[in-house]
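Provenance and format

Records in this collection were gathered into a single text stream. Each protein contributes a sequence line and a token line. The two records reproduced below are adjacent in the stream.
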Amino acid sequence: MSELTQAMIVNVAVLASVLATDLGPARKVGRARILRPLIVAAVIVPLFARSPAHSGTALALEIGGTITGMLLGLAAAALIKVYRSDTTGKPVSRAGYGYAALWTAVIASRTAFSYGAVHWFPTQLVNWGTAHQVTVNALTDTLVFMAIAMLVTRTLGLATRAARLAPPPQQHTQGVATGQDKAQKLESIGA
């Protein structure tokens, strides 16, 4: 499988996963919602990041891609409103057009770079890579690490914000007799 195909698969998987789970109002923030993107990340990294760099410019590039992904993930998390549902009291979220635009712009940029590396500026990229000892695998790994860091950071941000929500308000039933309360009261007076 070519590096371009790998990059496109990662981009589509990340974008589809994020938009399907986050867009819209009152999206439940439960275990599956948090685990799904983490599982996607756990599957993608070993499949596509075959030989991470250990030194030099390639390592700096991979670290830079990871940090960029984390910063973009924080931006994405900031665009999600996390709150308690009025009906269930459980954490839910709402993400709108700004959130979708951020993810789409980031994925489109990565896709354009991947496509350009093969079709628009391959000679310049090979010359740069040779001069700085950066392999095609290091470039691919950088894009994968950036995508996964953004996804994981957004997911952990969502989980953290949901966990920090104030507890739901207690139902005030004092002074209001329920059916069970009435039955117990009748039993106690011998009726």
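Adjacent record:
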Amino acid sequence: MRERQLRARDMLRGDLEGEELERYVEERVVMTRFEQMLNWSRANSMFPLSFGLACCAIEGIPMSAVTARYDIARFGAEAGRASPRQADFIVLSGRVSIKMAPVVRRLYDQMLEPKWAIAMGACSSSGGMFSNYAVVKGADKFMPIDVHIPGCPPRPEAVLYGFNKLQRKIQGNPDQGWRQRYNAAGTEEWARGGPRGEPSREAAEAYEEARRLIRA
């Protein structure tokens, strides 16, 4: 500690020269792009929407994951927001009924860009055990979903893992998903306007931009 203080003093005085000055600068200066710094800041200061649908909410954010055992505050996501206009991402934790789907979509639309969504549990991802007319078979049928977390219910460790995948996606390093492996980007029903529709122009441009970032 004392050695670093003396080197800092010498640098301020202008006594460091040559290799010592270069080594001092290399140890303390980081070069990056503004976009990368901005995405790193976004990924490590995520505010979840204080919102739950059903039983999975007890296992996820912002309930079990904020306890001392799991402590999602390590990743800067412990500050749950009661207003969608102050939240960065929404966690759909539980089954989504047909009556509740328009409400969830309105909450998502009220969130400010950039925003993200996590489908937590089997029910919000695919309808789960509810094979009936009242439950939507997957939240991606009416809104975009960034990360799916399987389980009934998923363990808090799985929730943290899914959140870490979302962080990597925000930082521009998305993990390869099944849509990319099978060249199925643009097949989501919400993007096509229905099972037999075509992607909207905005959705197609977003997919092309995502493919460009992955190839880069």
